[in-house]
Amino acid sequence: MMNTKTYDDEGLLLLSGIQHYAFCERQWALIHIENQWAENVRTVEGRHLHERVDDPYFTEIRNNVKVVRSVPLVSRRLGLYGMADLIEYHHTSERNHSPEIRIVEYKRGKPKPDDRDEVQLCAQAMCLEEMLGIRLEYGYFFYGETRHRHRVDFNKNLREKVVQLSERMHELFEKGITPAAVKGKKCRNCSLAHLCMPVLGKKRNQATSYIKKLIMEMEEETAGD
């Protein structure tokens, strides 16, 4: 169920952050709470790809399709704001018939093994729906490596995940909490790995467990005396 709470301008968070959050809560917090950022090859390639796409003054009409780039987005219910890379308005020959709207997001690389990209695109769609009072059933990704579009259906589960993630983002942001580091396979390609220091986080957890174990053993010995 959609949260009935609404956010004012000061309470809005960057929509693009939901993709970071879906990938790693700590990465999102380092970027959006602690304002830390570092680039690697992937982030540079992604930025260059968007520079070729993001032109707020670009509007093109191809046959019956109107193409608009860099469309501002906002959702007061999700508390998110950002930008859509590209919106297409597909017109039909029928009079008084509203155009079919399609949202397209550009990404470097290829489709991910998880749903972090899908969550971001669905969040964009939910913003556009709120702004225009419409319903979007699907959208597309265009990946730099595959060079063709990949369809994403905005089903109930994906929409619910967007709501859950956005609520959690606001909760952490309002409390200023940065989750602890947890080392995993995804750390290899993270541009913030040297700032996050997941190895130290793992060692700290091991040290904490070791100390707790010693205390328990001491208490057991004392109880046995």
Q: SSE layout and pairings?
A:
Layout: E1 13-14, H1 17-23, H2 25-32, H3 41-53, E2 59-62, E3 65-75, E4 80-90, E5 100-107, H4 116-132, E6 138-143, E7 149-153, H5 156-175, H6 193-196, H7 198-224
Parallel strand pairs: 1-4, 5-6
Antiparallel strand pairs: 2-3, 3-4, 4-5, 6-7
Description:
By secondary structure, the protein is α/β, with parallel strands linked by helices. Helices cover 43% and strands 21% of the residues. The chain has two domains: 9-179, Lambda Exonuclease, Chain A (Alpha-Beta Complex); 183-225. It is built from seven helices and seven strands, in the order βαααββββαββααα. Strands 1, 2, 3, 4, 5, 6 and 7 form a seven-stranded mixed beta sheet that branches. The chain is elongated and about 85 Å long. The N and C termini lie far apart (57 Å). Mean pLDDT is 82; it is low at 39-46 and 199-208.
Features:
225 residues; alpha/beta; 2 domains; 7-stranded mixed sheet; 21% strand; elongated
Task: Put the structure in a nutshell.
By secondary structure, the protein is α/β, with parallel strands linked by helices. The protein is 43% helix and 21% strand.
Task: List the quaternary state of the chains.
Answer: single chain
- Class by alpha and beta content: alpha/beta
What is the distance, rounded to the nearest whole angstrom, between the alpha carbons of the first and last residues? 57 Å
CATH class of the largest domain: Alpha Beta
Query: How many DSSP-defined strands?
Result: 7
H/E topology pattern: EHHHEEEEHEEHHH
CATH topology of the largest domain: Lambda Exonuclease, Chain A
The helix tally amounts to 7
- Domains, number: 2
Average pLDDT, all residues: 82
Poorly predicted sequence stretches spanning 5 or more consecutive residues: 39-46, 199-208
User: How much strand?
Assistant: 15-25%
Largest sheet, in brief, is: 7 strands, mixed
CATH architecture of the largest domain: Alpha-Beta Complex
How would the global form be characterised?
Answer: elongated
